[in-house]
Design goal:
Blueprint lengths: L1 H9 L1 H5 L8 H6 L28 E5 L6 E7 L3 H12 L4 E7 L7 E8 L5 H44 L2
Antiparallel strand pairs: 1-2, 2-4, 3-4
Helix pairs in contact: 4-5
Protein backbone atom coordinates (compact mmCIF):
# COMPACT_ATOMS: atom_id res chain seq x y z
CA UNK A 1 0.00 0.00 0.00
CA UNK A 2 2.90 2.29 0.78
CA UNK A 3 4.32 1.65 -2.71
CA UNK A 4 1.05 2.79 -4.27
CA UNK A 5 0.98 5.99 -2.22
CA UNK A 6 4.57 6.79 -3.20
CA UNK A 7 3.80 6.15 -6.86
CA UNK A 8 0.75 8.42 -6.71
CA UNK A 9 2.86 11.23 -5.32
CA UNK A 10 5.69 10.79 -7.84
CA UNK A 11 3.73 10.30 -11.05
CA UNK A 12 -0.06 10.33 -10.90
CA UNK A 13 -0.41 9.77 -14.68
CA UNK A 14 1.73 6.62 -14.57
CA UNK A 15 -0.18 5.39 -11.53
CA UNK A 16 -3.46 5.68 -13.45
CA UNK A 17 -2.14 3.76 -16.43
CA UNK A 18 -0.79 0.76 -14.49
CA UNK A 19 -2.42 -2.37 -13.15
CA UNK A 20 -1.59 -3.50 -9.63
CA UNK A 21 -2.00 -6.68 -7.65
CA UNK A 22 -1.32 -6.21 -3.95
CA UNK A 23 -0.45 -9.64 -2.60
CA UNK A 24 0.24 -8.67 1.01
CA UNK A 25 -1.68 -10.87 3.48
CA UNK A 26 -3.37 -8.00 5.34
CA UNK A 27 -4.63 -6.42 2.18
CA UNK A 28 -5.73 -9.76 0.74
CA UNK A 29 -8.08 -10.43 3.67
CA UNK A 30 -9.99 -7.19 3.06
CA UNK A 31 -10.01 -7.21 -0.71
CA UNK A 32 -8.62 -10.30 -2.47
CA UNK A 33 -7.79 -8.51 -5.69
CA UNK A 34 -6.95 -4.84 -5.91
CA UNK A 35 -6.73 -3.88 -9.54
CA UNK A 36 -6.97 -0.75 -11.55
CA UNK A 37 -7.94 -0.97 -15.19
CA UNK A 38 -5.38 0.52 -17.51
CA UNK A 39 -6.85 2.86 -20.09
CA UNK A 40 -5.63 2.02 -23.57
CA UNK A 41 -3.51 5.07 -24.18
CA UNK A 42 -1.18 3.27 -26.58
CA UNK A 43 -3.82 1.72 -28.85
CA UNK A 44 -3.36 2.65 -32.50
CA UNK A 45 -6.42 3.54 -34.54
CA UNK A 46 -7.32 0.69 -36.91
CA UNK A 47 -7.26 2.81 -40.06
CA UNK A 48 -3.60 3.67 -39.47
CA UNK A 49 -2.63 0.18 -40.64
CA UNK A 50 -3.83 0.82 -44.20
CA UNK A 51 -4.39 4.57 -44.78
CA UNK A 52 -1.33 6.50 -45.94
CA UNK A 53 -0.53 9.62 -43.97
CA UNK A 54 0.06 12.93 -45.80
CA UNK A 55 3.49 12.83 -47.42
CA UNK A 56 3.89 9.08 -46.94
CA UNK A 57 4.70 7.05 -50.06
CA UNK A 58 3.25 3.61 -50.74
CA UNK A 59 6.53 2.28 -52.15
CA UNK A 60 10.06 3.56 -51.59
CA UNK A 61 12.93 2.32 -53.77
CA UNK A 62 16.57 2.16 -52.74
CA UNK A 63 19.27 0.89 -55.10
CA UNK A 64 21.61 -1.58 -53.41
CA UNK A 65 25.14 -0.58 -54.43
CA UNK A 66 26.80 -3.69 -52.97
CA UNK A 67 25.27 -6.09 -55.51
CA UNK A 68 24.70 -5.19 -59.19
CA UNK A 69 21.12 -5.05 -60.50
CA UNK A 70 19.67 -5.14 -56.99
CA UNK A 71 17.11 -2.88 -55.37
CA UNK A 72 15.35 -2.72 -52.02
CA UNK A 73 11.66 -1.80 -52.05
CA UNK A 74 9.86 -0.70 -48.89
CA UNK A 75 6.09 -1.16 -49.10
CA UNK A 76 4.25 0.90 -46.48
CA UNK A 77 0.84 -0.10 -45.08
CA UNK A 78 1.09 -3.68 -46.42
CA UNK A 79 1.77 -7.07 -44.85
CA UNK A 80 2.75 -10.69 -45.60
CA UNK A 81 -0.22 -11.21 -47.92
CA UNK A 82 1.01 -8.90 -50.65
CA UNK A 83 4.69 -9.52 -49.89
CA UNK A 84 4.45 -13.26 -50.46
CA UNK A 85 2.38 -12.89 -53.64
CA UNK A 86 4.89 -10.45 -55.17
CA UNK A 87 7.86 -12.53 -54.06
CA UNK A 88 6.46 -15.75 -55.52
CA UNK A 89 5.56 -14.01 -58.80
CA UNK A 90 9.08 -12.54 -59.03
CA UNK A 91 10.71 -15.93 -58.41
CA UNK A 92 8.81 -17.33 -61.42
CA UNK A 93 10.31 -14.65 -63.68
CA UNK A 94 13.26 -15.82 -65.78
CA UNK A 95 15.15 -12.53 -65.29
CA UNK A 96 14.96 -12.50 -61.48
CA UNK A 97 17.88 -14.16 -59.68
CA UNK A 98 16.73 -13.45 -56.12
CA UNK A 99 13.60 -12.20 -54.45
CA UNK A 100 12.94 -12.15 -50.73
CA UNK A 101 11.08 -10.07 -48.18
CA UNK A 102 11.03 -9.41 -44.47
CA UNK A 103 8.62 -7.72 -42.11
CA UNK A 104 10.66 -5.63 -39.64
CA UNK A 105 8.06 -5.90 -36.85
CA UNK A 106 4.72 -7.72 -36.80
CA UNK A 107 2.87 -4.68 -35.43
CA UNK A 108 4.19 -2.32 -38.11
CA UNK A 109 2.35 -2.66 -41.44
CA UNK A 110 5.39 -2.58 -43.70
CA UNK A 111 7.61 -5.03 -45.54
CA UNK A 112 10.98 -4.79 -47.24
CA UNK A 113 11.44 -6.59 -50.57
CA UNK A 114 14.89 -7.23 -52.05
CA UNK A 115 15.08 -8.05 -55.76
CA UNK A 116 18.13 -8.99 -57.85
CA UNK A 117 17.85 -9.37 -61.61
CA UNK A 118 20.21 -10.66 -64.32
CA UNK A 119 20.68 -7.15 -65.76
CA UNK A 120 18.45 -7.50 -68.82
CA UNK A 121 15.65 -5.74 -66.93
CA UNK A 122 15.86 -3.52 -63.88
CA UNK A 123 14.50 -4.64 -60.50
CA UNK A 124 11.88 -1.88 -60.74
CA UNK A 125 10.65 -3.23 -64.10
CA UNK A 126 10.53 -6.75 -62.64
CA UNK A 127 8.40 -5.63 -59.69
CA UNK A 128 6.06 -3.60 -61.91
CA UNK A 129 5.62 -6.58 -64.26
CA UNK A 130 4.96 -8.91 -61.33
CA UNK A 131 2.36 -6.50 -59.93
CA UNK A 132 0.59 -6.22 -63.31
CA UNK A 133 0.49 -10.03 -63.59
CA UNK A 134 -0.90 -10.28 -60.04
CA UNK A 135 -3.66 -7.77 -60.77
CA UNK A 136 -4.57 -9.71 -63.92
CA UNK A 137 -4.63 -13.05 -62.05
CA UNK A 138 -6.65 -11.66 -59.14
CA UNK A 139 -9.16 -10.14 -61.59
CA UNK A 140 -9.52 -13.54 -63.25
CA UNK A 141 -9.99 -15.18 -59.85
CA UNK A 142 -12.66 -12.64 -58.96
CA UNK A 143 -14.56 -13.28 -62.20
CA UNK A 144 -14.38 -17.06 -61.74
CA UNK A 145 -15.56 -16.79 -58.14
CA UNK A 146 -18.49 -14.55 -59.11
CA UNK A 147 -19.47 -16.94 -61.91
CA UNK A 148 -19.40 -19.99 -59.61
CA UNK A 149 -21.28 -18.12 -56.90
CA UNK A 150 -24.04 -17.13 -59.32
CA UNK A 151 -24.27 -20.75 -60.58
CA UNK A 152 -24.63 -21.99 -57.00
CA UNK A 153 -27.37 -19.44 -56.35
CA UNK A 154 -29.26 -20.60 -59.46
CA UNK A 155 -28.87 -24.28 -58.52
CA UNK A 156 -30.00 -23.50 -54.97
CA UNK A 157 -33.04 -21.55 -56.22
CA UNK A 158 -33.92 -24.40 -58.61
CA UNK A 159 -33.66 -26.95 -55.81
CA UNK A 160 -35.92 -24.83 -53.59
CA UNK A 161 -38.53 -24.59 -56.35
CA UNK A 162 -38.32 -28.35 -56.91
CA UNK A 163 -38.83 -28.98 -53.17
CA UNK A 164 -41.76 -26.54 -53.08
CA UNK A 165 -43.46 -28.32 -55.99
CA UNK A 166 -42.95 -31.73 -54.37
CA UNK A 167 -44.33 -30.45 -51.06
CA UNK A 168 -41.13 -30.94 -49.10
Amino acid sequence: MENQQTLKQLDPERERSMTFFDSSAASYRHNPCITKVRPHLDVVARFESFVLLPGEKKVEIEVDTRIPSTAIFTFNKEDHTLANMIRSRLINSSHVLFSGYKVPHPLVPKFILRVQTDGQISPKEAVITACHELVKDLGSLSREFTKEYELRKMVGAGAQQQNAQNGV
